[in-house]
Amino acid sequence: MRVELAGEALGQSFERGLSQLPSINDAVHIVTEADLRRIYGSEGLDQIAIGTLSSSESITVKLSLDALVTRHSAILGSTGSGKSTTVASLLRSVVRPNQDGGAPASRILLLDLHGEYTHALADFARVYSATPQPGERPLFVPYWALQSRDLLNFVAGGLTENQEIAFTDKIQDMKAAVLAATNFPGLDPQSLTVDSPVPFSLKQCWHDLIDFEMRTLNGPQRDQPALEQAGDPATLTPPRYTPAAMGAAGPFLNQQAKGIRRQLNLMRSRLLDHRFDFILHPGPWEPQLDGTVEADLDRLLDDWLGHEKPVTILDLSGVPSSVLTTLVGSILRIVYEALYWSREKTEGGIHRPLLVVMEEAHRYLTGAKEDGPAADIVKRIAKEGRKYGIGAMVVSQRPAEVDETILSQCGTIFALRLSNPEDRARVKGALPDNLGGLVDLLPVLRTGEAIVAGEAARLPVRCRVTLPLPEQRPKSSDPKVSEAWANKRVAEGYDRVVASWRAQRTFAVTRDLSIVRVPVQDAPEPQGGEV
């Protein structure tokens, strides 16, 4: 038998760590139910109930909310192990809607990559969707609030150093012109950079650059544009110039062109692609051609973090995978920078902390050699967020693919069923040395059962997470194959399947048009030779 000394009871409270080691021949007692209640069910304002002991369902397991948020956490488990239900149960335990002792001022931002939580948390959450269904609020992320490199990687693809300079110089000039005409509180023109969150028109930027690239010139000094038809930035129509001639008469090519026509063509296609409207045509945050906007970033932050509901769900289920990492990184950077610089204000992170829940984190927090925009900002949150009231909850079915630095900063681990040896090894590395034996239990845990260890738990515990009511659970359950295949099939038609695919919306429908086709017949010839 091996004994691990984990903590001691002082009066009615239990604390981790030891002030005095036991001596040889000291008595050893079997733990009682009262002892278990003292260890796992302590009372306090910061304690939240998450479930019951697996070995004794009469014992409630409670965690420290302060440590859960500020010291970060991770919920790890294979698909079907109950991760989404655990997240919904935890958030419901934190907010406790319509109950005494709830947290009406709590502030939680949930990144929902599969649209699972809209109905599960509907009674205390506001939902913003990149592909909103009727009744949902649209999600907008202004492109001009992104870091210039992230924006250019998305809209223009790979750029050489000189090509990137051509874009950034133009963006810098456009932002400077907007700042000269409009007052943005807190921003000094002398401190303006290409990454400053100042609106500018991406359409006008494209038009000015493509005009310069396509330009042909006439005249002895080759300084007279051979323009045939002006373009239109509003409709993304390029200008038309007289083609360059081979002889000495002209027109001549613009020798100062930057060689970025291919990147500009990609930018135009991105601007025309409706799948990216939420970021390139962001509603009231879309600049006019002169850079003026209807709404500034304060309204965006108020929409996300300042409404009356404690939870904000950003439904990213309709976001193309090619832009997911950039989008997540941009959202988190906007939120982090705002709360970082306003940390002493009433809506800052210190006076009103924020918990960011990141579903399917392995899709955008990978441990690649070059950090993506999402991994870069989440590393900052994991390392520094505690000081500024910003906590992270990482949710993943493949912990082996999550950046190791991020996972190592998660002070509380919820380990659900895991079968993959690489994933179990990563979880084992995140747990204290004396808890490595618990990892052997991961493959045999029941659905909704978790091993919880770390800062928020008095002691490591194997618990059954409280299940929400059926109508309050995420839409992540497995299809009922036996029932679905036993039902009589009613053909719907694959035209609706293709319509949803093309529209990139699950609720897209085909338009039913009733067209009567009548064969065309020649008019009868007049009788009696009449004309």
Summarize this structure briefly:
This protein has 2 domains: 7-124 and 309-472, Rossmann fold, CATH 3.40.50.300; 148-276, no CATH class.
Sum up the structure in keywords.
531 residues; alpha/beta; elongated; Rossmann fold
Break the fold down into its secondary structure elements and pairings.
Elements lengths: L6 E4 L2 E4 L16 H8 L6 E7 L6 E5 H6 L2 E4 L6 H13 L12 E5 L12 E5 L7 E2 L9 H8 L5 H21 L20 H13 L1 E3 L5 E2 L1 E3 L10 E2 L10 E2 L7 H12 L4 H4 L16 H9 L5 E5 L5 H21 L12 E5 L14 H12 L5 E7 L7 H5 L3 E4 L5 H10 L18 E6 L6 E5 L15 H6 L7 H10 L28
Helix pairs in contact: 6-7, 10-11
**Strand runs, count:** 19
What percentage of residues falls in helices of 4 or more residues? 25-40%
The separation of the N and C termini measures 117 Å
Mean pLDDT comes to 87
Estimated radius of gyration: 30 Å
User: Which residue ranges are poorly predicted, with pLDDT under 50 across at least 5 consecutive positions?
Assistant: none
Shape: elongated
The tally of domains stands at: 2
Q: Can you summarize the main beta sheet?
A: 12 strands, mixed
Notes on the structure:
This protein has helices at 33-40, 65-70, 83-95, 148-155, 161-181, 202-214, 261-272, 277-280, 297-305, 321-341, 373-384, 404-408, 421-430, 481-486, 494-503, and strands spanning 7-10, 13-16, 47-53, 60-64, 73-76, 108-112, 125-129, 137-138, 216-218, 224-225, 227-229, 240-241, 252-253, 311-315, 354-358, 390-396, 412-415, 449-454, 461-465. It is of the alpha/beta class. The model has no long low-confidence stretch (mean pLDDT 87). The strands form four sheets. A twelve-stranded mixed sheet has the order 4-3-19-18-17-5-16-15-6-14-7-8. Strands 10-9-13 form a three-stranded antiparallel sheet, with no helix packed on it. Strands 1-2 form a two-stranded antiparallel ribbon. The protein contains 15 helices and 19 strands. It has two domains: 7-124 and 309-472, 3-Layer(aba) Sandwich (Rossmann fold); 148-276, no CATH class. The radius of gyration is 30 Å and the shape is elongated. A hairpin with a 6-residue loop joins strand 18 and strand 19 (461-465).
